[in-house]
Design goal:
Elements: H1 4-13, E1 21-24, H2 31-34, E2 36-42, E3 48-56, E4 64-72, H3 86-106, E5 112-117, H4 128-140, E6 145-149, E7 154-158
Length: 159
C-alpha cells in the first residue's frame, strides 16, 4: 500500500527509481531517423511506453535543442493511464534524457543547452501535467530554468 508520506517524499525529493529502458535504433537512413532517438520501457502495470527524443541543431548556434515526447505504445500523447506510476515514469524519462545527451555527445553533436516539451491538456484550462512536469524537472535539474511559451502550450528547459 502506498502511504502519503512515501508520495510526499517522492515528489519533494525526486527519489523514485526509474524503470529499465532500452534504446531502439531506428531502421533506415532517412533524415527523420537521424534526427530522432527512440527508447522503450515497461511499467509495473505492464504498460509499454515509448520516449522519442528529437534533436534540433539550428544553424545560428552551436548548441543542440531536444524535443521530448512520450506515450503508451499504441496510445496517444494525451492518454491518461491513472496507474499511480507517474513518479517512476518521470524518473525514467529524466534518465532517458540524460542517456540521450551522452549518446548525442558520442555522436559528435554540439552540446545540449535546451530541452522542449509540450504537456497535453484535457482542455484549454488544464495545466495539471504542466505543473507536475515543471516541479519534477526543477527538482531533478535545480540549475535549469523552465519557462512556458505560447500561453503554456510548450515549455523550454534551459540548461
Amino acid at each position: 500500500m502506498i502511504k502519503l508520506k512515501d508520495i510526499l517524499s517522492e515528489v519533494g525529493e525526486g527519489t523514485a527509481t526509474p524503470y529499465k529502458f532500452k534504446y531502439m535504433p531506428l531502421k533506415g537512413d532517412s533524415v527523420r531517423n537521424k534526427l530522432r532517438h527512440a527508447y522503450r520501457f515497461i511499467t509495473d502495470s505492464r504498460l509499454q511506453y515509448e520516449v522519442n527524443v528529437f534533436k534540433i541543431i539550428p544553424r545560428y548556434t552551436e548548441n543542440t535543442t531536444l524535443t521530448v515526447m512520450f506515450s503508451v505504445v499504441g496510445g496517444s500523447y494525451s492518454d491518461v493511464t491513472n496507474k499511480g506510476e507517474q513518479y517512476k515514469i518521470m524518473a525514467t524519462v529524466i534518465e532517458i534524457i540524460k542517456a540521450d545527451i551522452e549518446l548525442l555527445a558520442k555522436e559528435g553533436n554540439p552540446p545540449v543547452k535546451m530541452i522542449e516539451f509540450t504537456p497535453e491538456k484535457a482542455d484549454a484550462t488544464d495545466n495539471r501535467r504542466a505543473k507536475f512536469y515543471k516541479a519534477y524537472i526543477q527538482k531533478q535539474l535545480p540549475n535549469a530554468h523552465v519557462d512556458s511559451y505560447n500561453s503554456g502550450e510548450y515549455y523550454r528547459i534551459t540548461l
